[in-house]
């Protein structure tokens, strides 16, 4: 799809949304917490016990932040097991 086709498609989508929902307030959740949890799980799944520096570089975080993240996920998993 070229740029002009994409623009025409976008206009049709907006027109359909206006027809269906015009005059109403619609709130789209940001799902920020869900995204953070997904990222934490991704980092934790790559953790092998001593690759803090590698993970900090890969995820653009400080090593201390990675250590705190690993500890947080570990605590959450222990709490889930205990429940």
From TrEMBL:
Pfam family, one: Mor
Organism: Paracidovorax anthurii
Transmembrane spans: none
Protein name per its UniProtKB record: Mor transcription activator family protein
Boundaries of every Mor transcription activator domain copy: 2-81
């Amino acid at each position: 799809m070229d740029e002009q086709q994409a623009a025409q498609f976008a206009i049709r989508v907006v027109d359909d949304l206006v027809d269906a929902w015009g005059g109403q307030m619609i709130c789209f959740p940001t799902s920020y917490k869900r995204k953070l949890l997904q990222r934490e799980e991704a980092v934790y799944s790559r953790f092998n016990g001593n690759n803090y520096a590698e993970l900090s570089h890969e995820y653009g975080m400080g090593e201390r932040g990675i250590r705190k993240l690993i500890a947080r996920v570990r605590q959450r998993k222990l709490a889930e097991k205990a429940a």
